[in-house]
């Protein structure tokens, strides 16, 4: 299949929409602790949906994983395990900073590490990317993306300086800037390990294609392995929190005085399924980017911030902000959209050469 970078950008936009939207259904969960609804949603994000769609849309999923080298499975799982630390603290970032500022900080770190380290590790950055015109255009797009992320962070910081404590807590009940920055830094660095896991699982692509999988779905078996690692970390942490906080009974308790069980399971499942679709579309977009596959990570990060910022506007997280703050926010959105176009154009140039 001939790569189509323009279509790849659209797929990454769809992935960003899914990622920027997944936390919204959690807001409808009632009387459950964070660890409870995060784990319920995680079963759908990391186990149920990846295995279901992987089985339906790829050829001989179990046989493919059985044929994969043990070292490939180990490193894909291991990086998924490390990414899990970023994933579980990502939820805490949302609690302390809100969707807009939290997303900007986490994804800033994540974009830088996740995009550049794989080609540097493989020795391709200085030999193939940097000397070529198409590679230079992509790198320019990556720089523009980082500028857009910085503008989004500036908008969030400006908002924080202008709002009273009462206004902050009215929108973000547990707003805490210092704690949020620390958690966001750790989450962003660990979250970049997902890109390393996808890179480590690359040999699985050839195996699943040989087993009859369409080119468009070749990344789905890798997701099964990487997300299993992420599930391990999140499962252990959430169960420990259930034990410490004595919240394990929330999974089963029902009745007038307890949580609305059907509602909570439904919205947690919806959130988890929506979360998975970010990487469902990511792997589709990756197949369309040609030889500069690594640039997909930047497109993904930019798209996430674009849509999470729009959700932040819709959920009134910017209520009370000044005109200056709104200008920074819209500048960040414009720059991030421009970065996806530039990176896509660079990939297009790569297909010509």
- SS-based class: mainly alpha
What separation lies between the terminal Cα atoms? 16 Å
What count of structural domains?
Answer: 1
Query: What is the string of helix and strand elements?
Result: HHHHHHHHHHHHHH
Backbone CA Rg? 20 Å
What low-confidence regions span 5 or more consecutive residues with pLDDT below 50?
Answer: none
Quick check: average pLDDT? 87
- What is the total tally of β strands? 0
Helix content: over 70%
| Largest sheet entry | none
- Count helical runs: 14
User: What is the global morphology?
Assistant: globular
Instruction: Please report which band the strand proportion falls in: under 5%, 5-15%, 15-25%, 25-35%, 35-45% or over 45%.
Output: under 5%
Record keyword descriptors for this entry.
0% strand, mainly alpha, 14 helices, single chain, globular, 353 residues
Structure description:
- By secondary structure, the chain is an all-alpha fold.
- It has one domain.
- Helix content is 78%, strand content 0%.
- The chain is built from 14 helices and no strands.
- The longest helix is centred in the N-terminal third of the chain and has 52 residues.
- The chain is globular.
List the helices and strands and how they pair.
Layout: H1 5-21, H2 34-57, H3 61-67, H4 70-121, H5 125-129, H6 133-162, H7 165-171, H8 177-191, H9 193-200, H10 203-210, H11 220-245, H12 261-286, H13 296-314, H14 323-352
Helix pairs in contact: 1-12, 1-13, 1-14, 2-11, 2-12, 4-6, 4-8, 4-9, 4-11, 4-13, 6-13, 6-14, 13-14
